[in-house]
Amino acid sequence: MRFERTTMTDERSTDDDTAQSRFNSSSRRRFLGTSALLGAGALAATAPASATTLTSMDGHDGSEGTDDGPSDADILNFARTLEFLEARFYREGLDTIGEHDLHCSEPLRMIGGPIQDDAYGELRVIQAHEEAHVEALGDAIEGLGGEPVAEPEFDFGTATEDPVEFLATAATLETTGVAAYAGAAPLIENAELIPSALGIHSVEARHSSFLNVLNGESGFPEAVDQPLTMDEVLERAGPFIVE
């Protein structure tokens, strides 16, 4: 799974361009300060907010950050850290809990039928998706001349041991991932990256919908989903990342 290039033409007015530029500049500065914290084991949390927290940025096609905020490679590494977290969470949780205990958990017993029977296998598919996203983002970062961030160390506590807590936490992580992509995508400067980023975003939204159903909730609770700020992403995902 790789990011593919497409051609896009921006036909907005000069005034719109100026307003969007100011918005992006401010947002990207906020993003960099938070991404340094979120990647606590991988993005060097102690680095100054005005500096790039990643290594080996060659400055090719958006790999080098500026005083206004992170580079596109930094943003993709932020997403890669979240994908690492999700992939490791599913792998650890499904391996530890096992198919039988998950199948017999209260949320799935309440649902019953084919959804209960297929849940474990579908969650393994989601795990594979997250691992594919990690690789795709790594390829894209290398294509920008950047260095893909390594997988940090995670501690999920009892969330990967108790099936009820596992399903509830998975739903939270998926919702967080969807909203994080929605919040970060407008900050990407290289328009050729947007189609593939949105492609991952839509798959994450399907994951979120499925996890909502497994938890006995609506798969589509809102007509319009809201993006999360980087501080909100940090609040939800940061505690699982070991510094």
Automatic annotation (TrEMBL):
It holds the Pfam family Ferritin_2. Residues 1-12 have a biased composition (Basic and acidic residues). It comes from Saliphagus infecundisoli. Signal peptide: none annotated. This is Ferritin-like domain-containing protein. PROSITE patterns: TAT (PS51318). Residues 1-27 are annotated as: Disordered. Gene3D superfamilies: 1.20.1260.10. The lineage of its organism: Archaea, Methanobacteriati, Methanobacteriota, Stenosarchaea group, Halobacteria.
